[in-house]
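request received
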Amino acid sequence: MPVGRYVSDLEEGDVLNPVSYEMTPFIAREYCHGVDEVAEVFHAPGTEMSDAHLAPSTLIHIDKIRLLKANCPDGAGPDARIHYEYHATHHAPVPVGERLVASGSVSRRYEKRGRAYVELEIELRVESTDQLLTSYRDTSVLSFASKETA
Amino acid sequence: MTSTRSTVDLAVGDVLSGPARLMSRERMRWYCDALETTALGTGQFVIAEPTIHSDDDFAIANGLPGIIADGMISTNWISGMLVERFGLGYVGGGELQTKFIRPIYEDEVIETKGEIRAVEDGERPVYVIDVWCETADGQKCTVGQARIPVLAG
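response:
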């Protein structure tokens, strides 16, 4: 069941329903394509860096998108949402081919200079072992209605 | 899992840099499409709906002068610089924080940089690195810090 109709409905303390998925080679490679990431370890196994095919570290941001799509099915809300801060802590490489679980909650919602900010705390774990791979804090502005920089 | 890039030898004040890149309209759109495609994760390619990153009218309606780059593009350019320099030290045990303090507009040339701020002692020393992206005239757009443990050699 969705937590909010829109992302702008989210309130401090809301716990998002977790999302489970397989980290496929397609996901890792397509993301690389979108961000000019050329390190071969994110494209194939058996590289200088690792025997395993790994997912790009920054893909944790897409877990936020997955969680928001699953929990707020009608999108951002009345205004465009704009990303303000990214903060990822990597506990272990994210292996391609594993089933993963992303979970998250709303740790803060606050106003600054007339704008609403939402801070999410997200974790990414291996589904079969519960191993913590990445912790992520994401801050977004819920509306960007002036030319000021947030 | 093996790594041949396990140790590095850097001191406070040493600088890192990535290539200068044009923030083209296409790069902005590629990211929008990649975001939707990877979030869906079915193997099907997705063309993203209009956003402030891909549609000028949509951006103007939201108070912007035109499309701006998603902050994750510059964050990824910083991340790529760290992968290249620190390998598994970053990917498997590092930390990256970035903040988007100035929009990046279409056709701005963006450089990615870092500077070793400190080397924290411990069982496993940790590099503390100031990281940022800036325009050709030195205006910082994305700023932050990375913490990366030095792996045993």
